[in-house]
Amino acid sequence: MKKIGFIITCLCLSFSVYPQQKKPKQTKEFTTNNKTITVYTTADNTKLRLTPTDNLKFSPSKQPVETEISVFVEPSKKFQTFIGIGGAITDASAEIFAKLSKEKQTEFLNAYYDTQKGIGYSLLRTTIQSSDFSSGSYSYIQEGDTELKTFSIEHDKEFRIPLIKQAIKAAGGKIPTYATPWSPNAFMKTNKSVLKGGKLLPEFYQPWANMYAKFIKAYEKEGIPIWATSVQNEPMATQTWESCLYTAEDERDFLKNFLGPTLKKEGLGNVKIIAWDHNRDLMVQRANVIFSDPEASKYVWGMGFHWYETWTGAQPMFENVARVHEAYPDKKLIFTEGCVERFDAAKYQFWPNAERYGTSMINDFNNGTVAWTDWNILLDQFGGPNHVGNFCFAPIHADTTTGELIYTPSYYYIGHFSKFIRPNAVRVSTSVSRSYLSSTSFLNKNGNMTTVVMNHTDNEITYNLIVATEKTVVKIPAHAIQTLVY
């Protein structure tokens, strides 16, 4: 009997201990109670540019009928956590920025990085060595220097680093910055050129891996922490500009045997590594090869992708983003580059360019993407400078003859996301009842929901916004995008 009493006493003591443990803090569920909806609109053939156009209220929702068009938001169904939206500070962008007056420089920085005066960019990409959007090719080391004794980022200190520092300041003092190489040095490659593809020679895998570490440390010394690096920009494209080719197996082996271990050894294991950094077309195959290898996968944070698979005339492969997310849900997805190709000054205000951004961003976010980065944040009136003539559009251009800034519709379409969806927001379930509209929603940390709705048709559309069991009715103009904050 004494033994039984002892056991009962122990059990009682054990049960008395565990209830005292703190329960996990429950996240407060979103509600539409007492919420008003502020609608911001940008529309073709109007003066509406991120303009507040309506203040609406919720009312109880009944079953919608098939003749109605509806956007359905279910706040209880949550998905990926958002990191940010931004653009690339290239040499070209920095060189043009330096030509602006102080007044226009301030306007430009506010336009991109200020959350009140502008569209609140919260992410930044830059290059390791030169890209095509530089006035010329350059390197951080002298040719043949396998030990990197001549390594220096003095080139970047003239234009690029000063602009990055000002962007960080304008963004509130902190912005995740990631860097991408376009090509190793000529002596390290099979074609002995930084241009036109070629491959990294195996004997230079280690010196090239050392370059990433040197770059990251040099930028950190300048007060620019590097959040992440990708292995190689567009590793399957032989370009007329700086480029380098890696098969999936090449990238896997470089990652697991050189880049990953080198960053860890150099005390940079916290720097995220992004694989692929190329178009959506081959991303599933690249993910299968790299992420299915445990030794390579352990070093990789996620996968970057671009939108240029349409160069063949085919449609964007949005579903491939979803396929990677389904197969490797522990890996992050980040859109690392997109721009409108083939610059034409007559098309500054060409609306389909903006709609390309809206379509891509909505689809990419709905397929699991956590961050989205545009290409050059600024180019001149010729779509450059670009040392191989690959002139493109940017959301903002500067006319260097007049000193004026030219805002394209793409700037405003990006702003409908970046201004209102803030870092650490969580995507929630959103669907539409007709293909005339597309939509995505994020719940911000401050408790506000942001729903973006895009109308790519020639007609004004009246739609229901149905959030759980509440609704409101909204009108969206033809060829327009709206952000609803509530």
From TrEMBL:
Family to which the UniProt record says this protein belongs: Belongs to the glycosyl hydrolase 30 family.
Transmembrane segments: none
Transmembrane helix listed as a keyword: no
Limits of the Glycosyl hydrolase family 30 beta sandwich domain: 424-484
The protein's name: Glycosyl hydrolase
Organism, scientific name: Flavobacterium limi
Database matches in Gene3D superfamilies: Glycosidases, Golgi alpha-mannosidase II
Pfam families: Glyco_hydro_30, Glyco_hydro_30C
Keywords, ordered alphabetically: Glycosidase, Hydrolase, Signal
GO MF terms, alphabetically ordered: hydrolase activity
Span of domain Glycosyl hydrolase family 30 TIM-barrel: 84-421
Species lineage: Bacteria, Pseudomonadati, Bacteroidota, Flavobacteriia, Flavobacteriales
Keyword Hydrolase recorded: yes
